[in-house]
Amino acid sequence: MSAPWLVELEAVSKRFCLRHDAPGHLKVALLRGLGRRPPSPSLLALDDVSLRVAPGEALALVGPNGSGKSTLLRVVAGILQPSSGRVRVCGRVAPLIELGAGFHPELTGRENAFLNAALFGLTRREIQAIYEPVVAFAELWDFMDVPVKSYSLGMQMRLGFAVAVHVHADILLVDEVLAVGDEDFQAKCHARLAQLRGAGTAMVLVSHDGPALQRFCERALLLDEGRVVAAGSTADVLETYHRLSPQLGFAARAS
Amino acid sequence: MIRLLRYRTLVASLVARDLKLKYRGSLLGVCWSLLNPLLLLAVYTVAFSHVMRVDQPNYPAFLLSGLLPWLFFAGALRDATVSVTTQGALLRKLPFPAESLPVSTVLFHLAQFGLALLAGIPLSLLAGSRPGWTLALLPALVALHALFVVGLALLVSALSVPYRDVIHLTEVGLLLLFWLTPVAYPLALAPPALRTLLGLSPITAFSAAYQDLLFFGRAPAGLAWLALLAATTLALALGTLVFRAQAPRFPEVL
């Protein structure tokens, strides 16, 4: 691959409609058709955001609740389309926004792992190839033929994480899901992420765990109300975040 | 559609999931899929053949040839209306092609339709239908029909997101359409004016083609195939167009 960046966002903005009548009804559409368009308030969730992530690089997103971190992650993932600006992403994206998305309680661990991997876009052959490593990573050998409804939450998250870090993603997007399982398993997760980075996987992480971000990411962006307020080394950005935090987010708007 | 080919394993897994969830833990399992059409067959046969005395020799066999395709069509479309609206949580978290949801719903019903045909064709022979060599054309007709249903499924599943009314409209529409399609009665029995009107419906065209193949043992005319092909192309084009226009907004509005 010749492109130096796996993720490249240029001046990306995202505006959400805050319609209270959504999901709409035909009645509303008919009224609109007759020219009685109700005013629709909107929210600028991302405002002119640009960023780049190179292979093997990990970028941290920090900021108060509602600052646009998760929206930004969803735009990179291709789940949300930007209202303006340009998004360029090379390769397979694996968003870890919720571990085990789509797990069905009545299905066994094996069936759920298969379906979950298919949701990431893997073919049958690819899934069969990663199945054993996934089971070994999740340490759920004896539980793969048991319905997931009898799993503990920790077991479910371990299986979800194990699938997500084995789908051969070029870009991994991690949203607040680093605290999986007990200490041993967390150490294993961090080791796996480091290993993937070493192999060239680019990462964007959202977390409120400052020390973990400092250990893992060399660069960070501070977001507030959808804008990039600070960018630079993770230590500097976290320092700026702590200094500015009384003036950011809901706290600032309330006062 | 090309993206969907890349995600073919996902579509297959969704179909497998639905089949497993439907049959797991039930004693009679797959038999339930056959019991429902059999029950309807019995009820309509009593009502139309013995109470109202519709002039149609071999009524049960005639009914069966149109009823099984109808149940596939109606069941797939009814489930398709909610196939996207109920999966908002998933669509907000992973960037998979949303088309895989209505398409897998149709394939799930197609699998049951196939099963019903396997059991229904010997039954209909027993009841006196004489299909003969025309049965060889059945796979082509089923394939065309399934694509037609996929087109409509894409349409209703996408429109149900901004307009939940479409879910109820489809439900009511299907009820009405059942009686406006010559399944429980032969088209020839309808008054001439109504017959022309019913003849315009693509659902009637599919129903008639199935009755030709399975019951009368004759091949539908070339013109009839052309009409089915045109209806399928139109449904697929419209469904794809509407779905593609709506899909980018699914993660936002669901």
Strand content of chain A: 15-25%
CATH class type of chain A: Alpha Beta
Helix run count of chain A: 9
Provide the number of structural domains of chain B: 1
Using only C-alpha atoms, the radius of gyration of chain B works out to 19 Å
* Global morphology of chain B: globular
Low-confidence regions of chain A: none
Please provide a written account of the structure.
The complex is a heterodimer of chains A (255) and B (254). Chain A has 255 residues and is an alpha/beta fold. Chain A has a single domain (7-247), classed as P-loop containing nucleotide triphosphate hydrolases (Rossmann fold), CATH 3.40.50. Chain A has 9 helices and 9 strands. In chain A, the strands form 2 sheets. Chain A has a 6-stranded mixed beta sheet, with helices on both faces. The longest helix of chain A has 16 residues, at 183-198. With 254 residues, chain B is mostly helical. Chain B has one domain (2-253). Chain B contains 12 helices and no strands. The A-B interface holds A 16-17, 22-26, 29, 74, 77-81, 93, 95, 97-98, 101-102, 104, 106-107, 111, 114-115, 118-124, 127 and B 6-10, 12-14, 16-17, 20-21, 24, 85, 89-96, 161-165, 248, 251-254.
Care to give the gist of this entry?
The complex is a heterodimer of chains A (255) and B (254). Chain A has 255 residues and is α/β, with parallel strands linked by helices. Chain A has a single domain, classed as P-loop containing nucleotide triphosphate hydrolases (Rossmann fold, 3-Layer(aba) Sandwich), CATH 3.40.50.
